[in-house]
Amino acid sequence: MQLIDTHVHINFDVFNSELEAIRQRWQEAGVVHLVHSCVEPKEFSSIKAIADRFEELSFAVGLHPLDADKWTPEMGTQIEELARSDAKVVAIGEMGLDFYKAENQNQQKLVFQQQLTIAQKLHKPVIIHCRDAAMPMAEILYDFWENQGPIKGVMHCWGGTPEETKIFLDLGFYISFSGIVTFKNATQVQESVKVVDGDRLLVETDCPFLAPVPKRGKRNEPAYVQYVAEKVAELRGMTLESLATQTTKNACMLFGLSVGLS
Hints:
The protein is of the alpha/beta class. It is built from 9 helices and 8 strands.
């Protein structure tokens, strides 16, 4: 069995002292590749250092919506140049909208649109963070498609309703589920798992956050993506092995990875 964790943050300080042990655990769990997301461009060097150290890690560069106030035109140029600088950069992000307690919605929209343009220019997928903003997000993406053309990507750590899920599927996006899907009260997310087309389904940890049951409350790590995959497989009425094969194939398709399937 082979799994790909499509969203990690292992450059965070909580991992620094034991990356080799963490790597051994994800290898033992069948994780053959990871996609490292980026909160802001200044993380690039630390993420690149890990990608250079671990051949099975690809990564992204972008600005998180909660950091949208840091945006400058120069940052847009920086993101583009960094993305061009390393062949292991497979996406732009994470980017998007987070309207939970947000007072800068217009700024977030502007920054999101700017990064969509960069991704399209570079022919790279986007990693999208969307919290309490599904309809504004859909409006921006529909407008982008109409005026600038198609864009591909993933709705990461998805927590929307089945109806919202279908909107982003119709836009051509992949849907990625995190440890939230294992939580007892996450019925909305669990129902959304059931409506995603098989060829658009992904799994992730979003570590160090949101550790899945039975590790809930602990620091999350890539090895725990197996628990996410187990729950998604259960909800969809399929074997873990079939789910792993499908999601690994999907991740390879979206991010242009070449991970052999056994």
